[in-house]
Every structure is written in structure tokens, then in C-alpha cells.
Amino acid sequence: MTQRASRKSHPRPTQLASAVRLHWKAALLVAAAMAGQTLLTLAQPWPLRSMIDHVVKNPAEAHDLAARYNLMEFILVSVRGFVQEDRFHFLFQGIFLLALIYCGNALLLYVQNMALASLGQRVVLTIRERLFSHLVALPHNYFEKARTGDLTSRISKDTADAQDILESILTVLIRSLPTIVGILVVSFTMDWIYALTFLMVIPVVYWANVFFSRRTREAVRKQRRIEGALASNVQEAFYYHKAVTSLSLESEIIDDFLEGGRESAEHAVRAGRFQGMLTASMDMLVGATSLLVLFVGILRIIHGCLTVGQLMVFLSYLNSLFKPIRELSKFASRWAKSAAALERIEEIMALNPLEVGASDLPHAVPAPRFRGHVEFRDVWFGYEKDHPILQDFRLAAAAGERVALVGDSGSGKSTILHLLMRLYDPDRGTVAIDGRDIRDFTLASLRGQMAVVLQDSYIFRMSVRENIAMAKPGASEEEITAAARAAGAHDFIQRLPQGYDTQLGEGGGGLSGGQKRRLAIARAILRDAPIVILDEPTVGLDAASEKRVMEAIGRLTRGRTTFMVTHQLATIMDFDRIVVLSGGKVVESGRHEDLIRADGLYRRLWESQQAGEDSSRAPVG
Ligand SMILES: Nc1ncnc2c1ncn2[C@@H]1O[C@H](COP(=O)(O)OP(=O)(O)OP(=O)(O)O)[C@@H](O)[C@H]1O
């Protein structure tokens, strides 16, 4: 049972990193473009500095020019200066360098955006694929407790949010950090006293970011959980719409929805508040630091330790430093959302199928084609710890034998089928096919040799043909039609508006219960499996439908080892063996006539069913 307990490991942020590693070329391109921009941003104030310092050193010249000439003269003198004299060389050089920097920046920005969009999409797709494959391959018992709406939102929304976090991480790592380092290096080499002004600000900015982001993230995480639950409720309401309306549950469902929506909104408002505080405190910090830098800077200029151009460089660096930080603070709630989303993805990826339930064991090998000799050897099993459903259960079916499992409700009939399909593993004992423990085989090769028809026929939203063909990928048209004929489904399929091409609704909308069942039988016939599993295939059908379905089942099960769970004893009178269960144990076993003669539980079930049928047929009044 310990195997079955679903355990959560602590989330590790590995998915994003490994997806990025997989697309390292695109990541490298983004990083190179960002790094190039950072370098250009760091270089940008220098031409400005040399121009300003040049002008400040020659103030009379500058002042003279502006005061003496009108506009036309000013332009003419300036152009002559550029063409004939060396006087404006500093200006020409500065403008040229700045123009180069701006063009380079624009080009790199374009490359960065292109590469980032492509990297983001590829990373999202990779995470989505991995998450979906991991989820689909998880053992069945995981889905009994999981909320499917929540899982859907993890696959669609949470994975998409990974792109945001990727963008944020790259911005911080490749843009902000080098900018900070560049500023510190340049500042210390120019004027270390002045550099201390910067240094003081960094921890405050960091602390404010961490403090408010953490709170925003907590609020967003709660909001996400509630939204996941809401999505599950919505999905349930639509899926069971018939039950919802027939039980008049609409108002309760709407109330639940509104309640969840209100809770989610409260957390969203909370997140917004922290986000607002973060943005405001960042703005205040930027303002205060700029003032401090200006104040100290002018004092340093007066003391002759700094030039005006150098102050310009500092101010420009400060702006470049705060730009990404302010941007990030504005995106704090997006960042928080993405971080919460990544955690939710990691949570699922950390589930080890072997710990969750029945899955491929490391030594499993593909099963050979089965003859179909099935054995349950001293099997103990319970869904919950300390609540065994089957105790010391033994049953053997020869290859090709048709076995019916009957008994009281809750006696463990379907559980036996679950163990045979390896939806669960026994706590003790073994289930064996052709003498080998089924755990030795890979799940795909084991289940690939079983044809299953359940109470719910599982019709998918695709054409009739595709619904049948999914049992055998690549099946020919003749094989599909032959299977449909054998299942007694061909005639009604041909009467459908587009025959085999008719698109079916989710859950088989548009077909009657009996038609759905026969479609499922056609699928099982096409599978051509040595083992057939049927769980109450005729339940809920009228007498005529039941007859047609049983004829189809007769053709499906011919020569194949069959296990059929049923309450309708009249449908199994010709079975090779009827196994009667009570409280998880076999109490009787034999053919119909033998069991009637034995005068035990089977006979009582049979007689009560006959009496029920007689009374239902008796004329009223
Ligand atoms: N997924 C599950 N988790 C926990 N308990 C379960 C689960 N499925 C079945 N059970 C319990 O195991 C017992 C046997 O169930 P099972 O479905 O095998 O009985 P059954 O004989 O097929 O019943 P029925 O004829 O009503 O379908 C029941 O008490 C049931 O409540």
C-alpha cells in the first residue's frame, strides 16, 4: 500500500532550466543580444561626457556662438566649422559614436525580441509536452483524487507563465547585474566617495523587492489555487450538466462559483496592493537616490573631484540601473504569478510514478503475445490502508475461457478487473498471465493485449471511424467495417448523417446508450486481443438493445479469455464459468445449471432477479 500513497517532494526549479538548456542556441542569442545592449548602455554616456566636458572647458566659445548669430548664420557657421576647421571635431565624433550606439541598440533590441519570443515559445512547448506526458503516464489512482480542471489550468496557463519568468530572469541576470557591476567599477575608478552613494542604495532596493515580491507571490499563489479549483468546478458542471439540471443544482453551483470568485478576487486585490507598494517604493527610491547623487555630485564638482561630464555619466548609469529594476517591480505580480505557476508545475513533475501507484517497473519487458491463461494467486488488495477488499483471492481462467463475475454490490468484482488491467497492484500475491507476474511486463504491452468495454463507453470527440480505429492505429477501412459489422454497429453507423465520418460529441453525444456500447465493442473487436474485459456492458439498456449488445459480445469473446462483471444474470447463462463473490471472496463457482442446482447465493440472486423481471412484466392493476 505504501507504493500507492501519493507523495509530494519539494519542488525543484529544474523544468525551466532544463528546457532552456535544450534550446541553448536561442538562449545564447538572447543572452548575447542582451549583453550587447548592456555594453552599449554602459558606453552610451561616454561620448556625451566628452562633449559636455569639452564645452564646459570652453564656455566662452559656446556662449559666443549662441549669442552672436541668428538662426541662418548659426547654421552656416556650424557647417563651415564642421567642413573647414578642426574645432568641432569632438562634436562630430561624439554624435557619430552616439548614433552608432543608438543604431546598435535598436538592432540588438530587435534580435533580442525575436529570439526571446522564439525561445519563450519553445520553452513553453517543451515544458507543456513534458508535463502532459508525465501526467498522462501517471498511475490511474492519481486521477481519482486529482482535480482535472486544476490540472488543465496547470497545463495551459501555468506553462504559458513560464515565459514571463524566463524573460524576468534574463533581464535581471543579463541586463541589471552587469549594469550594476559596470556602474560600480566605473564609479570606483572615477571617484570612490561618489561610488559609495550607489553602493548604499543597492541593498535597500534589493530588500524592498524581496519583501514586497514575496508577499505578492503568496497572494498570487493562493489565488492560483482557488482558480484551479474553480476551473475544476466549472468543468464538472459542464460535464455533468444533465445531472446538474435534473437535480436542480444550478443555484448551488453558481453560489460556489461566486464564492470562489470572490475569494480569488480578494487575493488578487491583496497581490495588487503589494505590487502597488513595491512600485511606489521603487519610485521613491529612484527619486531619493537621484537627488542624493545630484547633491553629492555637485558638491564633488565644486571640490574639483568630478567633472560635469562625469556627473552626467553617473546620472545616466543611475537611470540605466533603475530602468530594469522599475520595470521588474511593475511586473512583480506577473513575476509572482509565474513563480507560483512554476512551483505548481514542479510539484507534478516531482511525482514519481512508482511511488504514486502501478507503473512500469525498472525491469519490465515487453510482453510476448499472450495465450490468455490468467491467474490470481493469493491476492490481497485494498484501496485504502487497512481496508482490504480482496483477501487471499484465488482464481484461474484457462486460455479462451469465458468467466463471469457476479455478486453483491461492493463485493470486489470491478476491483478484480482493475488488478488484471494493472490500474492497481496487489498489496500481496500476484496476478499472472501465462505463468508470469504481470508486473514483469511493460504496461503498454500488457494493456495492448486487452480489449476493454466498460459501463461508460468512452466515446471521444472525433468521427465514428476514428473512434473505432483508435484500438488499432493504422487499421484498414475493411478491418474497421468488419469490426463494426461484428459488433452489430454497421447498420446504425450507415444511417448516421455522414456515416463513418459523422463527428461525435464528447461522451458520445448523438448516440443512444446501446449504440455507444456497440461502438465500444467494435473497437474491442478491432483490437483483436487475447484477453477481453467487460464491466457491466449491458447495464442501463432495454431488452432489445441488451440482446443486440450480447450478440456482439458473443462474437467479441469467442476464443478469447474473458472476464465479465455483470448483475444481469440472464446475459451469462452460456458462460464457461460463473464466479460468485461475496465480501471479496469466491463463494461459489461453476456453470449456470450447476450453480442453480447448488442452491446457494447464485440461485437466490437468480430467483430474486427472475421475480423482479416477472413483476415488472406483470400487468398493472
Ligand atoms: N477507487 C476507489 N477508492 C476507494 N475505494 C474503492 C474504490 N473503488 C472501489 N472501492 C471500494 O471497494 C469495494 C469494492 O468495489 P468494487 O467496485 O470492486 O465492487 P463491485 O463488486 O464491482 O461493486 P458494484 O457491483 O456495485 O459495481 C467497495 O466497497 C468500494 O466502495
UniProtKB/TrEMBL annotation:
Coiled-coil annotated spans: none
Keywords annotated in UniProt: ATP-binding, Cell membrane, Membrane, Nucleotide-binding, Transmembrane, Transmembrane helix, Transport
Superkingdom in the source lineage: Bacteria
Name of the molecule in the record: ATP-binding cassette, subfamily B
One GO CC term on file: plasma membrane
Organism: Desulfacinum infernum DSM 9756
Membrane topology type: Multi-pass membrane protein
Primary localisation category: membrane
GO molecular function (one): ATP binding
